[in-house]
Design goal:
Elements (H helix, E strand, L loop, with lengths): L1 E5 L2 E3 L5 E8 L8 E6 L6 E6 L6 E3 L7 E6 L4 E6 L8 E7 L4 E2 L3 E5 L2
Parallel strand pairs: 2-11
Antiparallel strand pairs: 1-3, 3-8, 4-5, 4-9, 5-6, 7-8, 9-10, 9-11
Length: 113
C-alpha cells in the first residue's frame, strides 16, 4: 500500500491550494479515505473524510465551508481543495486509508504573508 501526497507549498492568507494523494496497492474505489494534519507542537488531527463512492463527506468544524474533499476513482486519487486559507491552517497534511491503517509521507502547507 502506498499513498503519495503532493500540492503543498507556501500561500498567503486568503489563498488556495489543492492537495492530491495518489494511492496504489489496494482497490481504491472500495475504501473510504481521509485527510489529517499536524501543526508544529500539536497532535495530528482529522480534517475530512470521504466514502468510497464519494457521496458522503465529513469535515472538522475548523475547515467546514473552506475545504472540500473529493476523489477520482478512475485515477486512484483523493484531493483536498483548500480555500480561504488562514495562518492556523499551517501544518503537514497527510492522506490516510483508515481500513488499511496506512499514511502518506505528508506535504507541508504554510500560510503566511
Amino acid at each position: 500500500v502506498q499513498l503519495v501526497e503532493s500540492g503543498g507549498g507556501l500561500v498567503q492568507p486568503g489563498g488556495s491550494l489543492r492537495l492530491s494523494c495518489a494511492v496504489s496497492g489496494f482497490t481504491f474505489s472500495s475504501y473510504a479515505m481521509s485527510w489529517y494534519r499536524q501543526a508544529p507542537g500539536k497532535e495530528r488531527e482529522w480534517v475530512a473524510d470521504i466514502t468510497s463512492g464519494g457521496g458522503i463527506t465529513n469535515y472538522a468544524d475548523s475547515v467546514k465551508g473552506r475545504f472540500t474533499i473529493s476523489r477520482d476513482n478512475a485515477k486512484n486519487t483523493v484531493y483536498l481543495q483548500m480555500n480561504s486559507l488562514k495562518p492556523e491552517d499551517t501544518a503537514v497534511y497527510y492522506c490516510y486509508a483508515p481500513l488499511w491503517r496506512s499514511w502518506g509521507q505528508g506535504t507541508q502547507v504554510t500560510v503566511s504573508s
